[in-house]
Amino acid sequence: MRRRAAIAALLTLLALIVASAAVKAQARSGPVEAVVTDERGKPVVDAVVTLTSLGMPAPATPRVTVVMDQHDKEFVPHVLPVYIGTPVSFPNRDNIRHHVYSFSSPEKFELPLYIGTPATPVLFDKPGVVALGCNIHDWMLAYIYVVTTPYFAKTAADGKARLDGLTPGTYEARVWQPRMRGGAEKTAQPVTLAVGEPAQVAFVVSLKAEWRVPRAPDSYKGVQGS
């Protein structure tokens, strides 16, 4: 009888532990509101805010193909953050051909002259910044920022971003923007999230002056049907 009682007590304890872990896994913090400004207090657009858990491994997430568009001889969006291992499609919605390429070390690739959508997306399986260009239209410039956490968001014109659905715990927040001086690691700051409680994180960044190759007039006719 004592042995049966001990086994029953042990099973009950294990059930409580499993139930507690399940409740904890289902618990969520409130939204995290991020604000990014420059040194003059002006909002910074296209800044990627990331939260990396310091106590738990990143959850498994489905790898869904995302899109870097080409429209009116521009990449859209200008900045595309993706989780490491994400495939990216590069549709060309113009009626002229583009030649997309990158010489960036995280993902060097070329998509020779084409119209429409290439059959195979490009897989971004190394973290870092991937600068994109078009071999025909020199002013076309964009960035894919490959991050190692599924928790990220990009700021809008008001310099604000929102992250939802995070598990309570301690995280490291960082920010990156193409014109930012210094690396994202220099912006790291801890953030503690509680069950159901909203949180805020703010960054002040120093930006380099913006410069891009001037766009050619619409009447410009170059090689390769540009």
Structural features:
single chain, 226 residues, mainly beta, Immunoglobulin-like, 1 helix, 17 strands, 11% helix
Characterization of the model:
This protein has 1 helix and 17 strands. It folds into 2 domains: 29-57 and 153-211, Immunoglobulin-like, CATH 2.60.40.1120; 59-148, Immunoglobulin-like (Sandwich), CATH 2.60.40. It is mainly β. 24% of the residues are buried. Residues 11-25 and 219-224 have low confidence and may be disordered. It has one helix at 2-26, and strands spanning 32-38, 48-53, 66-67, 69-71, 74-76, 79-83, 86-89, 98-102, 109-114, 122-124, 128-134, 141-147, 152-154, 160-163, 169-176, 189-193, 199-205. The strands form 5 sheets. It has a 5-stranded mixed sheet, with no helix packed on it. The protein has a 4-stranded antiparallel sheet with strand order 13-2-15-16, with no helix packed on it. A 3-stranded mixed sheet has the order 14-1-17, with no helix packed on it.
